[in-house]
Amino acid sequence: MTDKKRILTGDRPTGKLHLGHYVGSVANRVRLQEEYDSYIIIADVQALTTNFDQPENLSRDTLQIAEDYLAAGLDPRISTIFIQSMIPEIHELAAYFGMFTSVNVLRHNPTVKSEAQQHGFSDMTYGFLGYPVSQAADITIFKANLVPVGEDQIPHLELTRKIVRRFNDLYKPVLVEPEILIGEVPRLVGLDGKSKMSKSLDNAIYLSDTTEELRKKVMDAVTDPARIHKTDPGHPEICTVFAYHKVFNQPEVAQIECDCRQGAIGCVACKKTLIACLDGLLMPMRERRQQYVDNPGLVKDILWDGTQRAHRVAKETMAEVREAMGINYFNPRSNG
Ligand code: TRP
Fold first, then answer.
1. Residues 38 and 57 in one domain
2. Which atom of ligand 1 is the closest one to the Cα of 43?
3. How many CB atoms are located within 10 Å of the residue 70 CB?
């Protein structure tokens, strides 16, 4: 047992992680993993809320995201990375939470609404509408104190806190109300300069991109259309490349802004500086990734160990939950 506070966070396995995920949440997880007892959930059941007709992708995407986490710097000796579907107690707890959670509250959840729209669900399934309840179980079964996530998760965390208060009030104060931690850059713009970075919009730089892929993506990015000649004064506030300098190249950003406004640096030179800087971020990730590529069983072993560890914690909390609710028929400690 450790007296460190606990983190629980994670993602749906639906594809490769990109820089938006990194600055929105993954960098926080890496930074905090020594200070907190960290649990990272690969929410494969939640991924089925939108991909239930393609279960064959789940195991590939689960291994992919685990490899991305490890490449990004989550250390499996200190962070527990595990698979949601392998912990049936989470679904048991979600069933109990479902008894006192209002359907209307779920219907009005802004993230659920915008995802439903994005996926064209005019008639939401029971599982999709209820996934924030299951997410509350993911978090509370680990008695997490802190949840580092992107800003789209705020409504889910508010619901989780409400569920904890309600549960503790109805039964016994067993569960912990978690705090939310939003990343430094909650919304990284995509390469198109228009929307947030996302796989479905094909505007992302992936943590697994090679130097060549990165170079091509940055070179093709749109800059200030008013700059024809490199001596034309630029407008960094409307330039996607500059937006990335602001996030990833803090030591040089002030100089770049000044040079761009004066027409003292051309877009090609500015892009090359950014490529070097991003490549410096991705290079150690590529090196870490290589050991998993060379050793394909390793990621599965790490997930197996993490899932066993997580399962032990989940079983302990569920024993307390059942005891608090008085539904533990065969335990000699229970009443009756
Ligand atoms: N809803 C999160 C996402 O879409 C994934 C997730 C599932 C999660 N369970 C969680 C995040 C628990 C934080 C805590 O990315």
1. yes
2. 7
3. 21
